[in-house]
Every structure is written in C-alpha cells, then in structure tokens.
Amino acid sequence: MSPAYGELREVTPFASVVLAENPSVMTLEGTNTWLLRAPGSSSCAVVDPGPLDRAHLARVAAFGPVDVVLLTHGHPDHSEGAAEFGVLVGAPVRAFDPRFQLGSEGLAGGDVVEAGGLEIRVLATPGHTDDSLCFLVEDAVLTGDTVLGRGTTVLDGKLRDYLESLKILADLPPGTTVLPGHGPELPDIGSVARAYLTHRELRLAQVRAAVAELGGSPTARQVVEVVYADVDPSLWQAAEWSVRSQLEYLADS
C-alpha cells in the first residue's frame, strides 16, 4: 500500500506520526515526524520536523500547539525544516548540535524534557552521526536513524560509538516499542539492537577479509566493491560512509 503522506497516524496512546513526502533509497518511504502528547494534553512535542517542505510543516503545525521541537540528529531530511517550523509554531528547537537550536538550551544524554504532558528522556547514542540522540518516552524509544524500521543504517560517525549506542538500546526493558526516523514501528528495541550488533560484527569481519584480500591500504570504495558486490551500485556511496568508519575502527584496534 502507498504511504499516507500528510495524515496523522496514531501509533501508541501518546505517539502519532506524520510521514513527510521525501521518499528515497536513503529515507525509505520518507521521514517520520513524530508528535508526542499525553492523553488529554492540549499541547505536544514534535520530533524531527523533516525537510524544508512548507506543506508538510504546515500540516504538522495544525496538530499543535507545540511546546518544543526536538531533533534526533542534524541530517537535512530530519532537521532542514526545524528552524522555520520552530518560528511557525512559536516553540524552541532543541538538539545536541547547537547549530540547530532555536532557543537557549541544547540537549545532552541524561536530560529530561517535559512537554505535551510527558517526560521525555534523552539518550546520547552517537554513531550514525556524532550528534545522534534517542528519546525514551513511556514504553517506547524514538531512534531517529540509529535504528530504522526496516533494514540497517549507514554510519556517518564512529563505529566504536555506534556499537556502544546499540548496547544501550539493547539493555532497555523488553517490549520497548521502536519509533524510528524512517520505516514502520517495531515491537521491541532489544531484539532489533542485538540483531544490529550481529550485523555489524558480520560486516566488520567482511571488511577485515576484504582488506587482507586487497592488500596494502585499500580505499573505502575498493572495499565496498568487494563487500557490497551483491548490492545495487546506487547504494555504494552510502556504503562508503560505513566502510570508512569500519576501516578507522580496525586501524584504531
């Protein structure tokens, strides 16, 4: 079925999603913009307003009032519209990276944001990017691109950081629902995070073997052509980000 772009879809009693119309090989069906609101609350928190698509931003704003805008990380498909959206709804934008903040307070792991009648706990989860955060609310976790609803993510940060972040997510209580930045929600973050860890260990072994096969100091692209030979070449550029992180990890080890 085609995604229902622009419609508010309730996923849990406190979390609803509006899908941005920016599908691609990297964003799957598009960016998930999440609205967090306790039952009975008149206001909400908005997580990842998405790209600078004014029609999408206006649709999300119509479900306000908005107490605060939160960013999982700074990639444009999540953050490009944040500043304009914050002005539109009269709410501060809070992120790990101060470049995206529209207000006086940033975000760090361990912070608690009170908005929409909820307590939203901030988890520092670098790896996909250095500024990646997850948000724990009630019995769910918003994972941005740290964990996707389908497939695995690319690394634009450090592999060592990412492995530690996955371990943090794997230790969350059983049955914690995954509310991802792209793709469908998933029933249990622990099982997904452990599967991601297994996948990363497999890829790392493949990269190590490719380096030995190629000899010398191969480039990330050369390694991609070996490890990802069975993957559509249109995805190789993104794969290079992950391989570069893996090569740095092996060099540091």
Write the layout of secondary structure elements.
Layout: E1 8-12, E2 15-19, E3 32-36, E4 44-47, H1 54-61, E5 66-70, H2 76-79, H3 82-89, E6 93-94, E7 112-115, E8 118-124, E9 133-137, E10 140-144, H4 159-170, E11 177-180, H5 189-214, H6 220-227, H7 236-252
Helix pairs in contact: 4-5, 5-6, 6-7
What attributes does this structure have?
alpha/beta, six-stranded mixed beta sheet, five-stranded mixed beta sheet, elongated
The Cα radius of gyration reads: 18 Å
Count the DSSP helices: 7
Shape: elongated
Strand runs, count: 11
Helix-strand makeup class: alpha/beta
The first-to-last residue Cα distance is: 46 Å
Largest sheet: 6 strands, mixed
- Biggest sheet, spatial arrangement of strands: 1-2-3-4-5-6
SSE order, one letter for each helix or strand: EEEEHEHHEEEEEHEHHH
**Overall pLDDT, averaged?**
94
Description of the structure:
The structure is a single chain. The chain has 253 residues and is α/β, with parallel strands linked by helices. Helix content is 33%, strand content 20%. The protein is built from seven helices and eleven strands. The chain has helices at 54-61, 76-79, 82-89, 159-170, 189-214, 220-227, 236-252; strands spanning 8-12, 15-19, 32-36, 44-47, 66-70, 93-94, 112-115, 118-124, 133-137, 140-144, 177-180. The strands form two sheets. The chain has a six-stranded mixed β-sheet with strand order 1-2-3-4-5-6. Strands 7-8-9-10-11 form a five-stranded mixed β-sheet, with no helix packed on it. α4 runs antiparallel to α5, α5 (189-214) crosses α6 (220-227) and α6 (220-227) packs across α7 (236-252). The longest helix has 26 residues, at 189-214. The model has no long low-confidence stretch (mean pLDDT 94).
